[in-house]
Predict the structure.
Amino acid sequence: MARKDSLESGTLTDAAFYILLSLQTEQHGYLIMQQVEDWTGGEMKIGPASLYTTLKKLTDAEVIETAGGSGKRKAYRITAKGQTMLEEEIERRRRMVQLAEDVLTKREERAE
Amino acid sequence: MARKDSLESGTLTDAAFYILLSLQTEQHGYLIMQQVEDWTGGEMKIGPASLYTTLKKLTDAEVIETAGGSGKRKAYRITAKGQTMLEEEIERRRRMVQLAEDVLTKREERAE
DNA sequence: TTATGATATATCATTAAATGATATAAAGGA
DNA sequence: TCCTTTATATCATTTAATGATATATCATAA
């Protein structure tokens, strides 16, 4: 990740990927952290530093937007642009996994 | 990524992922670049800077090792440790895609 | 009442990763 | 000869991730 903003190039980092996934339902930051940790059984943790800096970046890029929120909470929702990005990113990652499976299968066949 | 080396934490960056995949057959650096670009139809390009710095890092971490090579070419092969890491990384990425599909499916169901 | 832990957001400084640019050199063909 | 491709390598810069820290609110247990 350097020399080119990942959002501009249309790819999502792991953190951004999980955040957009969590925002399939309108949500505030703290809940995103908990949901991601929950989803991954603790494998993936987005700490406050990563979370709020990423949320700001995603907001600036109009991938997500604020949606009110009560008290000190600030709710976020994904934009149409963000939804498209997420779906394309899922496909990109699916292709990566598929490629890996194909390559490993060929390797096993060679070994027989 | 910061504050924690991705290799130490057991995850692979996109570049490292593709490199290890390419090294399912013994190969020298330049061929890795071409194969990755080829595999992804140009979507993913690992330039010389990224390639050789990543190869060095992977070698230092004993994820890959040099394997002779003729002339100026330097061949690399994946180690047992590297193979395990790659396979675990494939599973991690598969889980991410699966989670995303599940979440999106639920979202579509809600919309009906 | 008070203090403690959980909730909630935010920023700074540091470390890691990615990469454009550049350099070098050999090999092969026009 | 000259140009392109092959092949490896490093530097300096930019982007990403995050530990540490700060702040404030709220519920609840002592």
